[in-house]
Amino acid sequence: MQMGNVNFDTYFHNYPDKDGFFGPYGGVYVDDKLKAAMAEITQAYYSICQSRKFIAELRRIRTEFQGRPTPISHLERLSDALGGRVQLYAKREDLNHSGAHKLNHCMGEALLAKYMGKKKVIAETGAGQHGVALATAAAYFGLECDIYMGAVDIKKQAPNVARMKVLGARVVEVTHGLQTLKEAVDAAFDAYSKEYNDAIYCIGSVLGPHPFPMMVRDFQSVVGIEAREQFIGMTGHLPDAVVACVGGGSNAAGMFAGFLNDPVDIWGVEPLGRGEKLGDHAASLKFGTAGIMHGFNSIMLKDENGNPAPVYSVASGLDYPSSGPEHAFWRDLGRVKYDVIDDNETIDAFYKLSRLEGIIPAIESAHAVAYAMKLAKRMEHGSVLLNLSGRGDKDLDYVIEKYGIPD
Length: 407
Prior knowledge:
Rossmann fold, 407 residues, alpha/beta
């Protein structure tokens, strides 16, 4: 498949380029000290992570510890409730150990840290799933672990905060600004700039300076590679559409990577939150413009002064004012289409999946469920494969308190 000047047969050999760019997006926009640290990680990734020994160890961990491959489930009752013309399927990353897709890249990053001789891993988290995953990986490899988390998210995600602490991580509360994901990233980067000799920053998405967007995508691509093979094995053909939620975009990048070169519609779903007014959503790819933050250039939501704008989503893991640079590139190419789902549609999908299929999704993942339901209503026939990126245990108290339990 080819779009413009991009041949998807050879896409992963060419993108990102040697400077970490996907077209105009990406790069390394950090001070000279951190540039040296990024160069060290880049070199280690290319030399260590491509070695037979590293790959064999990571594959063993995927099987013996993570429980991969995760299955695909046919959402038959949900499909029937939507008319039955279109069949919905879910890639069950909620069944990955620790409850979400995040462990896919955390085990890879922590294993790399071990090979590099680092003693600590540092990260930010919003919904807490990345924090739990990295705390899990740190415990597995015997590494120290500092997790930076906004005070607002700490209150919303108490179960995951407790899990991180039980696993031995130090949870650092971030109390400046809006006290959510962006501020957590700010604080984590600041801490890393002082500790990079002994620590590695394990960013939680396909964000940040090169090599993180590439490295996280590559570690997450196991999701799409598995899903493609599994879906063909189940049905004998490819899905008509693939859907995943997009905040920073790690679960989506991993899922989409398996289908870029196929005649399949690909949809990334951003959070519309309370509506289109700036500050009421976190749909950067729909409403944003090019800008630099947290060491990379991508599409971001800006305030009147050109700074990252305040954002909101019912899903703590999606309330970020930018998106991964590769998503911006795919959007410009037209290979991936990006659309939005609001809070009300998300919560409706949260309960419908729970009651019709016995699967309680993470609120982040419920955005993908809601959009898959919307696609099913407007398609004449066919199939939709969504990435159920995480489980909803972490969200139950918050959803019940804010929305109640429907009759």
